[in-house]
Amino acid sequence: MKKAIVFDRDGTLIKDKGYIKKSTDVEFYKIDINLMQALNKHFLFFIVSNQAGIGKGLISDDEVKEVNLYIEKHFKEQGIHFTEIFYCPHSEAEKCHCRKPEQFFMEIIKSKYNIDSASSYMIGDHPSDIIFGKRAGFNTIYVLTGHGKKHRDELSKKTAAFHVTNNINSALIKIKRNFIHETH
User: What is residue 145's DSSP assignment?
Assistant: First the structure.
């Protein structure tokens, strides 16, 4: 079985600036590229993102695809491969089956790529990211970037993250330490 790291997009990998319409609006957090490259040798990387702006008519599906391709290209140029990027285009009001924390995309990831949940991670800045990961049996890391600080008090015992950290780099360091511990 394979291991995975599932990343939320806005507020985790890139700064959350509301509904991002074009690649020029994307601002990446400072990420330890060497660490991401090292982890990418042992983990499949995915992005799962709720993009409610599509359902609300504030951004288009094509705009989200353009931004996702830009993000994917940015990392690819640095030797980091995302296996697949998923996004839910629905607003909360639509009560769909693909909006995090629903398991639609996680089930695809787990079955299509033969993922070992217990050895995999979900990183995000919103309680729904943590619920999403926990329901799948993943280890969860809540980052205090994006909406992380604002929603931290919403984390209850039910949604308590495996680890709470300041940013994506701290999350990646935690995963690296756990991985080294598991393999020795």
Answer: T
Q: What is this structure's pTM?
A: 0.95
124-138 residue pLDDT tens: 999 999 999 999 999
Overall average pLDDT of the 86-101 stretch: 96
State residue 92 phi and psi, 5-degree precision.
-55, -35
Question: How many whole angstroms separate alpha carbon 10 and alpha carbon 65?
Answer: 14
Q: Has residue 104 got a pLDDT over 80?
A: yes
With beta carbons less than 8 A apart as the criterion, state whether 131 and 101 touch: yes
8 Å CB contact between 87 and 122: no
What φ, ψ does residue 25 adopt, rounded to 5°? -85, -10
Q: Report residue 54 as tokens.
A: 């599509």
**Domain at 3-183, CATH class:** alpha beta
**Per-domain boundaries in the chain:** 3-183
Token pair of 35 as six digits? 């660490």
Helix (H, G, I), strand (E, B) or coil at 132: helix
Distances (CA, A) of 87 to 4, 50, 83, 97, 166: 17, 6, 14, 12, 24
* Whether residue 183 has pLDDT greater than 90: no
Alpha helices in the chain, H assignment, sequence order: 33-40, 52-55, 61-76, 104-113, 127-135, 148-151, 168-183
Single-letter code of the amino acid located at 129: D
Catalytic residue list: 8, 10
